[in-house]
Design goal:
By secondary structure, the protein is an all-alpha fold. The protein contains 13 helices and two strands; from the N terminus they run αααααααααααααββ. It has a two-stranded antiparallel sheet.
Length: about 260
């Protein structure tokens, strides 16, 4: 269920930059229309979840994987990507190939989409969008196979002439090495430091600094940084006032 809902969310959020620009000008591209059809098909496929009234009802839903619209629309997005090769819309179509291939568990098409995007758009700022998706590809493949491909792809992207793209690939490589604290912290720190040293004016340098701070101060087993706050009664306090006691921190807000 979790994966299904994630796929649905991604699909509806996956309107391309080209599509947005075209819609702003009152134009509808072939990709716009195909995305609209795909979104409609996904809505119908996942309809049992939206109709369910309780979590218990949702937990009992069993969708037929063979009926997943991704299987039908994958070849359509692939055909469009090939027809629009080299154009901005072509890149967006390859991103939809990647998305539908992941949902359809078509690893060959996932690999093809990444390879084609890198080959055709290496020096385009668009490739940074691919970099953000690469760590989530081949999700059900053996870890060693998956990591080898991710490492190869990110290394290839670091050959881009665009410094922001190179920085994004190096940052993603560092994050992949870190694996949320379960990976190789030494390799991750080295890559983060390289981002800061070689691309100091990019947004990724700031993100790398934050990542290093998190490794040093916010990892499991570290002493939490102290801070001041005011409780619901208006009484000021510090986190360190509760040292030695079990403390649950609940961060929330409205966005």
């Amino acid at each position: 269920m979790k994966n299904a809902l994630i796929v649905l969310s991604i699909a509806f959020a996956g309107v391309s930059a080209t599509s947005v620009a075209a819609q702003a000008k009152g134009k509808t591209t072939a990709l716009d229309e195909l995305q609209r059809q795909y979104s409609t098909a996904l809505s119908k496929y996942f309809e049992p979840y939206s109709k369910a009234k309780t979590d218990e009802e949702r937990s009992k839903i069993q969708l037929d994987a063979a009926m997943n619209p991704a299987k039908t629309y994958l070849p359509k997005f692939k055909k469009l990507a090939m027809a629009e090769s080299g154009s901005p819309q072509g890149f967006d179509a390859w991103m939809m190939v990647l998305e539908t291939a992941e949902s359809a568990r078509d690893h060959a098409s996932e690999t093809m989409a990444v390879d084609k995007a890198i080959a055709g758009y290496l020096n385009s700022p668009q490739i940074a969008r691919l970099v953000a998706m690469i760590p989530y590809t081949l999700s059900d493949q053996p870890s060693n196979v998956r990591q080898a491909k991710i490492h190869r792809w990110l290394a290839e992207i670091q050959e881009s002439r665009n410094p922001e793209v190179r920085a994004s690939a190096l940052f993603s490589q560092a994050s992949s090495a870190a694996e949320d604290g379960r990976g190789d912290p030494v390799a991750a720190r080295k890559a983060y430091a390289k981002v800061i040293a070689e691309y100091p004016s990019t947004s990724y340098a700031k993100r790398a600094q934050s990542a290093i701070f998190e490794m040093d101060h916010l990892s499991i087993g570290q002493v939490a940084p102290d801070f001041n706050a005011v409780d619901q009664d208006g009484t000021a306090f510090k986190l360190s006032d509760y040292r030695g006691k079990v403390v649950v921190l609940d961060f929330w807000g409205f966005w």
